[in-house]
Automatic annotation (TrEMBL):
Keyword Chloroplast: no
Species assigned in the record: Xylanibacillus composti
One Pfam family per UniProt: FabA
Domain of life (superkingdom): Bacteria
Family recorded in the similarity comment: Belongs to the thioester dehydratase family. FabZ subfamily.
Keywords noted in UniProt: Lyase
Residue spans crossing the bilayer: none
Descriptive protein name: Beta-hydroxyacyl-ACP dehydratase
A single GO molecular function term of this UniProt record: lyase activity
Length: 143
């Protein structure tokens, strides 16, 4: 299914093209075709364009958002912690497959492991943790 039918974002900031799999609040798979006409590739880098790593991370976030939106809880969760590792450059013409899996983490927390793949090459891995909004607000008030 087309990502713009699911995500509440406007183009050009929808950074996944298609959601190919959604499994009951626990897993999602999405695909992004990297095109040389994508404006964020212009000048990054002029002699040899590569897809910005932060946009790869955002692709994982948007794939996770599809999981939350499917279960109707997107407004409840606030991102609380992110760790990521970029492993291989992504270039125009590549197709990135994002896979996110929700890990057991309790009623007031959610944690996802995400990966991005170009063919057999893992290009990014990330772990993103979320807290329920009221939990996040209480933690911020204590700081």
């Amino acid at each position: 299914m087309r990502a713009e039918r699911i995500l509440p974002y406007a183009k050009p900031w929808i950074l996944i093209d298609q959601v190919t799999e959604l499994k009951g609040g626990t897993q999602a798979v999405a695909v992004k075709q990297i095109s040389s006409s994508d404006f964020y590739l212009q000048g990054h880098f002029p002699a040899h364009s590569i897809y910005p790593g932060m946009l790869l991370l955002e692709g994982i976030r948007q794939t996770i958002a599809c999981v939350f939106l499917q279960e109707g809880t997107a407004a409840v969760w606030k991102e609380s912690e992110v760790s990521s590792r970029f492993m291989h450059p992504v270039e125009p013409g590549d197709s990135v497959k994002y896979v996110v899996i929700r890990r057991p983490s309790g009623m007031h927390a959610a944690q996802f492991d995400g990966e991005g793949w170009v063919g057999d090459n893992k290009v990014i891995q990330a772990r993103i943790a979320y807290r329920k909004e009221e939990e996040a607000n209480e933690a911020n008030a204590r700081q």
